[in-house]
Write a structure and sequence with these properties.
single chain; 345 residues; alpha+beta; BirA Bifunctional Protein, domain 2; 2 domains; 3-stranded antiparallel β-sheet; binds 3,4-dihydroxyphenylalanine
């Protein structure tokens, strides 16, 4: 019995010191496991009388329970302390300013494309798509440009085979959309890449982009086209922008027009941007040629329509004073960051 008391005292003494969790567990095992000190005392049972055994066994069991309780309390304490330390050490201060990352810059090309899209979506247009690798049939034939028509010389086209080519204008999408619309009214724009066999220089690129517009319904007239384009110019260039039509020729429109916008820099007085004329040419447009309507399933006696083709780079260059079309494609970080600074100012 004395030994039991001694063991209890011994443990209490040892636990006074604040032991680390691992040592606590080792200590507990040393006293309480099968070959632990308390268990070894059990071995002495056999030397005792039956009466003595009873009270000795009870003492041992009580001592065991007491020790277990003691260890458990200490271990819990340590575990809680360890958890608190962990929480403290791994605490994240979400109010600290973040590490800033370099996130690149938006290319002005996409900024302008997005702006054009938004202007027309705001006027109720849907955005359509068509293939960049297309058939001669859609790019030319269905737009009233038959084989050997001199108008084919207006565009130097990149052919893949006799019938297949890289589209030289987004007007091809007009034919696709009309063919798929079963003679119903249409109001779409189609932004997209186009390709021509051009030598690249400051104003030419073998790959560039256009936004095609097409509206077909009953009673569509040239006035509708003009007011649409004027609203576009006012949103894109300047609130007081005006547009003027100059007569032109495209096989898919009749009449056809070149569209000028009043110079947003000098407001018509004349400056280097508008080369002194007060006007800047921005796009081609016209009333959809009755032949085109007919070939694509629309009765020109019932339906009429207008169409336009805007060069995205041209608009971006005018809008942001960019003087070289190649800059859009070179991904030169200096150009991109300069441009973004300009936009922020
Ligand atoms: N497709 C013409 C071009 O690439 C641009 C154009 C002119 C589109 C008149 C049209 C249009 O829809 O009506 O030069």
């Amino acid at each position: 019995m004395k030994e039991i008391d001694e063991i209890l005292l011994e443990v209490k003494e040892k636990l006074k010191a604040s032991l680390p969790l691992e040592e606590l567990i080792q200590l507990r095992n040393a006293y309480l496991l099968k070959k632990g000190k308390l268990q070894l005392l059990m071995g002495k049972m056999k030397d005792l009388s039956i009466e003595e055994r009873k009270s000795f066994g009870k003492e041992i069991n009580d001592a065991k329970a007491a020790l277990e309780a003691l260890f458990e309390e200490k271990i819990k304490e340590k575990e809680a302390q360890k958890l608190n330390e962990m929480l403290e050490n791994e605490k994240v201060d979400i109010t600290l300013p973040g590490v800033s990352h370099f996130s690149g810059y938006q290319n002005p090309f996409f900024k302008v494309q997005r702006e054009i899209e938004e202007i027309f979506i705001g006027m109720g247009y849907e955005v359509a798509n068509g293939p960049e690798v297309d058939k001669d049939h859609y790019v030319f034939e269905l737009l009233n440009i038959p084989k050997n028509h001199p108008a084919r010389d207006m565009q130097d086209t990149l052919y893949i085979d006799e019938e297949t080519l890289l589209r030289s204008h987004t007007s091809a999408v007009q034919a696709h959309v009309m063919q798929n619309s079963n003679g119903k009214p249409i109001k779409i724009i189609c932004p997209g890449k186009t390709y021509r066999r051009d030598d690249d220089d400051m104003t030419h690129s073998h790959q560039f982009a256009q936004v095609e517009g097409l509206v077909i319904d009953k009673n569509i007239n040239l006035g509708n086209l003009k007011s649409t384009l004027e609203l576009f110019a006012q949103k894109m260039f300047s609130k007081d922008a005006k547009v003027r039509f100059r007569s032109s020729f495209f096989p898919f429109t009749e009449p056809s027009v070149e569209v000028d916008v009043s110079c947003f820099n000098c407001h018509g007085r004349g400056c280097p941007i508008c080369k002194g004329s007060g006007w800047i040419e921005i796009l081609g447009a016209g009333m959809v040629n009755p032949n085109v309507l007919r070939m694509n399933g629309y009765d020109p006696d019932v339906y009429s329509g207008f169409a336009f083709g805007i060069g995205i780079e041209r608009v971006a260059m005018l809008r942001y004073g960019i003087n070289d079309i190649r800059k859009f494609y070179q991904n030169d970080i200096r150009f991109l960051s300069d441009f973004n600074k300009k936009v922020e100012d």
